[in-house]
């Protein structure tokens, strides 16, 4: 397997039920996205969690780290909620021999207008081309979790 993709929940997998934005985290959407994209890369999808990233705990981050460490794949993509993606990226630092790229979406993948497709494609490409380390693929850029932040007002990630 060339890439292992771990899903943890977040907006990318959200299902909204009404105009008040009540939601739940649904089935991982990445399998459908990759099938529709006719992806020819060898990959495996492993669902770890179905949580909003604001609900992730340190134990959840350790679960993610252990799964990545145990994976036989050297190239890893993690779908994750954007609010605490940087915290999880920091928890993944120091895993030797792994290129880990985290990504998510500001709008659910189920929406007609979503950034999910572009972000996932960027993450898969980055996982295959970047050297070992931990990265975030969002907004058409690759970020280092040690030097980035989510700008909530502008709805994007940026280097600090």
TrEMBL record:
Gene3D superfamilies membership: L-asparaginase, N-terminal domain
Residues annotated to bind substrate: 53, 82-83
Entry-linked PROSITE patterns: ASN_GLN_ASE_3
GO MF annotation list: asparaginase activity
Residue stretches making up the L-asparaginase N-terminal domain: 3-151
Catalytic residues, chain numbering: 11
Protein known as: L-asparaginase
Organism in which the protein naturally occurs: Malonomonas rubra DSM 5091
